[in-house]
Structure formats: C-alpha cells, structure tokens
Amino acid sequence: MTQEEDRRGESPEEAVTRGLCDIGRTADGLKQSFLTLDVRGFGLNTVTPVSKYQHLQRLKLARNRLTTLKGLGSLTNVVYVDASENELTDLLDTSPALHNVSEANFRLNSIREIKTPLVSYQCLKVLNLDQNGLTSLEGLGALAKLQVLTASGNNLESCGGLDSLSQLRVLDLSNNKIAGVAELSGLANLEILRLAQNVVESLTSADRLESLTVLDISDNRLRALEDFCSLSALHRLRDLRMEGNPCCLAMHSRLHVVKILTQLSVLDSAAVAAAEKIEAQNLHGADIDDLAAIRAEHFPSGELDDGGNAAPPVSAQLKAFEGILDAREYFGAFDERCREAVGEVMGEAGGSVTADELCQALMEASSSAMECCRALYLWTLEAVREPSGKDGSMDTAAPLFKDPRLESLGDFKGTWAERVSQLFVALARGCDLLAELIIGYGRSPDDASVTVEVPNHCWAAVCVEGRWCLLDCTWKSFCAPPFAFFMQHFPLQRRWQLLPELKTKDDFWEMPRYSADFALLGLEIDGPIQSSVSLEVGSVPYSFTLDVPRGLIVRTELCDEEGKEVFWRSGASTSFHNVVGVQEGMCKTRIYTSPPHAGDFLLLVFVTSQQEKEQGKDPQSALSVKVSCLDTSQDGGDLLTYPLPNATELFFSNLCSLASPLDEPMLAHRETDFACSVPGADRAWLESKGKEVCELEPSDSDAGFIGNFIPAEGGSLSLLAAFPGDVKPRELLVFYPLSLTAIMVTEVRRPEVEDVSEETEEASALRQTFGRVDKNGDGRVNKADLLLAMKRLPDLAKTLRMNKSAVREGDGSMQEFERAFERLDRDQSGDLDWKEFSAVLVQE
C-alpha cells in the first residue's frame, strides 16, 4: 500500500498528528514539545488542527488544498512556513500576523496581488512567490528586512514596488513580462539579479546596482551590445548571462562583451579565460605595446604557442586604391550591362541560383577584376532587402534577401550589415578575388547617433590588382577614397583605414557627422572641426572653415531637438557663413553659429549648385555639428547672447564678405567700424527704416567698402548695394543692433588682459579690473563697456554704490546706473579714464 493510499480517510486531526516530528526537549529535559509539522501532500483543506501546537517553529504545508491560512495566528514561535502548491489567494493572511516568520514559500498558488498588509512581518528575510500569476509587487515594500525574493513565472510587467527594500540581496524575476530595470535602481545592496525570459529592451539605470555580482539577463530583447556598456561601472560584477538576446547573434558578441566588461570571470556559464581576454583586446585593435603588456600580465611564462614573445603587428603594408569619387560616372554603361547579364541568369534560374552559377555569370559579364568587384557590389545591392525596423543595420532578425530562394547561397549569421558583408565577401572569394570582412564603428550620415563603445557596423575590403578597395553594401559606398570612406567608418583593425597616418577612435568620434556625398561634392576640411561643441550663454559664436568649390551655394541652419530651425526673438539669424578667401577655385567659407538660448541644437550645412536650385532640387546635406549651449548665469534669467546678421542669397552667390563687425555684436549708440567686400558693386550703404544711415566708401582692398557710424536703438539695419544695370538696389545683409537693454543682460567673453605690475598688490588688482572692463583696450570705459563688464563682475555694482547687482529695464536699476556713471564721469566726457575709475575703487 502506498503512502498516499494509507492516508485516505484520515481526518485533519489524524493527519496533523501523523505529521508531527522533530521532538525536542525543554531545559529541564522533562516536557516534550513538537518543533516541526510536516504534512506535505496530506490533502488538508484547513489549518484548524495545527493551532493547538503552540511550540511549532516550522510549518511544512506544501501540496495540500488550502485556500487560507487563517487560524495560524496563535503560533507565535513559527519562523518558517512552506505553503507552496496550494490554492491560496492571499499572502500570510494568518490573522493575527506571525511576527517571527523569517522564511516563507508560497510557490505555485493563486496569489494575483498582495492583499494583506505586511508591515507586521519585519522579520521576514526570504520569500518565494514563484508561479502565482502575480501582476504587481506593490505591497512588498513593507518587508524592510527582506533579503531574498523570488517571483519568477508570474505575469509581472513591472518590477516597481521594491525600491524601499534596501536590504535585498537576491532577486529573481525571471520568466515574466518585465521590459526594463530602471525601477530597481535604488537597490544598492542587490548582489544577484535574475531577469531571464522577460522582454527587457534596455539596461538603463542598471549601472546604479553597485553591489551586483551576478546578473542573468538571458532570453530577453536586448538588440544592441552597447546596452552592456553601462555595466562596466559595476566593478563587483563577476557572472553575466546574456545568451538568447537578439544582440548575441552579432559577430564576436562574446568577445565584445569580454572587452567592455573586463571584470567578468564567467560569461554565459563559461569561464572567461585570460587567453580570451587577449583575443578580445586583439580583435579591438590593441596596440603592440598594449598587447605586450597584456601578455606579460596573463602569460608571464610564455604559455602561448609563440612562446609569449611575439607581438602581432598592428598594421601591415597594405597598398590602397586611390578611390573613386563618383562610381556611376567612372563605370559608365558597364553598370547597365552588368544588371542585364545578371538579370538573365536569375531569370533562367527562376530566382533559384547556386553561388557557383552566380559567380560564373558575374565573371563573364566583367572584363577586369575591378568590373567584377563592381558587378558583385551591384548584385548585392539588388538582392538584399533593407531592414524596416528601428534597429536598422544592427537588426539581427531582419530577412536578408528580397527573394527567400536566395537563402541557399549561404547561412549567414549576425546583424543585417554583417550578413550583407559576409554575403559579398563569400561571393568575391568565389570570383577568385581576395576579400576581407571588416568590423568596426559606423556613423550613418542619416542618423545623429552618439558615440558608441561597441562595434556597430560591418563592411568589406577587396584587393584588385594589388591594391585594396573599401566598400559598404549597406550604406552604398563603392571604392571611395580612403579619407572619404573614413568619414563614416572606423575599423577595429586600424590598418584597414588605408590612410598614410592612422587615426585613433577618438579622432573618429570627434569629427563632425559628414554626409555620404561630402567628398563627392568636392568639399574639404580647413582646420579642426568637432562633432559636438559646448558654449555658454553669452559666449562668442562657434565657427569653423570649409573649402567649398566655387559655384556651389551654401546654406546653414541651426535646429532644435525637434528639427525646427531657431531664430532670435528679433528675427536675427542663429547661423551665418562668410567667404573669407578664394583660392584655386575653392571658397574658404567660415561658418558661424550662435544659439538664442540654452539647450541642445544641431548646426546643419547644406550645399547646392545654381543649376540644381533652378531645377527645384533640394540642397544636399554636407555635415552636421551638435551644439550644446549652457546657461551659467547666476540669476537664471533669459539672457541674450550674440545675434548674427541675416544674409540674402545674393550675398553668398556673389561671394560677398563681411569683415566687420563680426567678432562682436553691433551695439546701439556705440561707434561701429564697418567693412565688407561686394564684388562688382558701384556703391554700398547702410539703411534703416528706409533712410540712409551711412554711405560706405570704397577701400583699398578689392571690391571693399568701409564706413563708420553709430547705430540707432530699435529696428533693423540693412546693407544695400547698387550693381551696374540694376534699376533698384539690392539687399545683402540685415543686422539687428543690440539695445542698451540687451547689453545689460549680454556678456561677450573675451580673453583676460595681462596683469600690470604696480607698486602694491591692491593697485595691481585695480589695474587688472580696469583692463577687464576696458573692452577695446583704448584706456577708456564707456557705458556699454561698463554694462558688459557688470555681467562678468557682479561686484562692480557694489563698487558703483548701486543697490541692485544687475541692471534691468523697468525696475529703476537703469536710472540708478545712469546716475552712478555720471558721478564717476567727472569731466563729463561720456567715458571713464583710469584716473576716474581708480579713484572710486580706491575709495571703496
């Protein structure tokens, strides 16, 4: 007779009596007390008979038919409860609470939510809620001393409700529907986190789990290996499981993670060996000295096959093909003939073709190795299907071919870009071409993505007649010159840059984002340009220079984060470009930008030809630079900075140039020197509100005009020119002079003047202060100078005996400033010399 059959017909009381065990003795050795009750699988549907055993400490009630635990409240000594595999719908509803319980197992019940307030269970340290159908963990936050929580196999879509569990050490939420880990960021003492078989798409905030040693994030939806970079901050992390995520299908995914998470000792249940760490470093293009140091550390006795003394070369003598700027023009009619030949082969095969048949057709259609390479490239472009998902070329699940029958050409694994490149390299080798697969970092011209730490792109190199050509079948770049190809591609193995001087990864990411056609348009870099710059509100504009072929029209825009072009309130421009020289058919064009307020912006540069413009074609993107503007003002006010002039198309197409004012804003009521170049103009002048302000005189320089005037406050100021044969003058530039109100809240940052040696330290400090206020260094300070300096030097207001530290319109501070200035200006000249300035400062 089995044990289950033997229990049939027993009453609950008999079953409980049978389950009593672990007889202990009290101190006097006389009175017996039962410490453990084990009635697992007895078929109980009530706990009433249990309550009379007051000394019970451990309750094993698993595999019964219990629907409630009410009635156990009198067992005040209980520290362990196993009520798994019952029919309970509530947690620890014992009425009253079992205050001393430290471990509880409620696995495989029907607890959908936490109903019972748990504030009384302050001793509970271990809790198992696996496979209950839970939809929320709200309510568990009251368990202040909880150290171990398992709630796998539920219906959780969020891990919220645990942020107050500061003592939690182990958390298992595997096999749920959780999409992120940000809600766990407050668990600073968490050591083990298991989130396998969820729908996690991001590891955002995981870097805050500073005590984590074990993380199981396998079988989730992490698409990019870049997500794991945040874990590099977790210095205690030793064991990571990531298998089963889409990103793991990428080539060398394990080595990439070994490279970025150097603290790991176990990855996907396999030990991370020292040799593997070296392989990862080597894959990522470690320099010779770095590799030698790694080998010396991990293999001091020369355990490698080469004895540990050989250092793999970082670069080889690779001869680069000079490149093709416009491949379509270079190959002419061959492209069309090639498509026809391949189309015939594919038609005859009914879409099903072997790799050998395809390679044979491509070689027969080509008369040279370069034409064969081109034919392979064109066929690959036609055959593959571009991914439609948000992951783009990093998509590991996107179909590779437009026609599924082509999958017989090979079983390729990895991201879409990796699979496309693998396909091309395999076919190139089938055509007897020497081809190599290259992995590295890519900067898509269509995507303003930020710097990444894990390789995110793949392309190919083919050797044609002893010279290597670089091509990208995903971003459609064929044999571009190495310098142009490098603008979007940084190979892990630096030798594949094919450049005379190898660049670093930092060099690559610090470049602006060039378009794919930057080099094709004939544009060239003139001086350093960064991918992103930071400015302060009140700083002078950021600028850089490009060489632009004569005949191309440049256009610039400064856009906000939503892609909308931004302007000043006055209507003044936030971007401007200026031809500063013409040499050998190239116009040196200086690009300026000045954000109107704090925030993140994108400076875009476009070019077009006059013919394309007349045809109504959109201008082509050339490059973009991220511009971050920070407000460092003390009062947090809405400060103005540096409005730029608005330019008409004629100003640029006619190669006009503005020489002054360009290094400082045009200020109302302040004498301004004006200089510009207007080729072909008979005369030029400045006009405001339909009235001439200043007639500009021809200068000694070619096509130059100069003048001197004092802008009036309010309104705009236009530069006009008259050309031979014109009936009406033409507008070139529009300026928006800053008023005194704007000057009050504008700071133009300039280099500090050098210290001037004086007899005393105090006098030297005063002289330095005067130098900082004297903006143009002429030894005199006017109202505009002083207003500008007060923004930089808040203590000046006190020096001037003003009650307010800032001058603003409408609060009386402007009138107070005027009176203070008149007090200082003893000779009523309209400005202050050193003697007037220092006399007041000395008094203070």
UniProtKB/TrEMBL annotation:
GO cellular component, as recorded: axoneme
Primary subcellular site in the record, as a coarse category: cytoplasm
CDD domains: EFh (cd00051)
GO MF annotations, alphabetized: calcium ion binding
Subcellular localization, as worded in the UniProt entry: Cytoplasm, Cytoskeleton, Cilium axoneme
Domain EF-hand: 761-796, 812-844
Gene3D superfamilies noted in UniProt: 3.10.620.30, EF-hand (1.10.238.10), Ribonuclease Inhibitor (3.80.10.10)
PROSITE patterns reported for this sequence: EF_HAND_1, EF_HAND_2, LRR
UniProt entry keywords in alphabetical sequence: Calcium, Leucine-rich repeat, Repeat
Name of the protein this chain belongs to: Leucine-rich repeat domain-containing protein
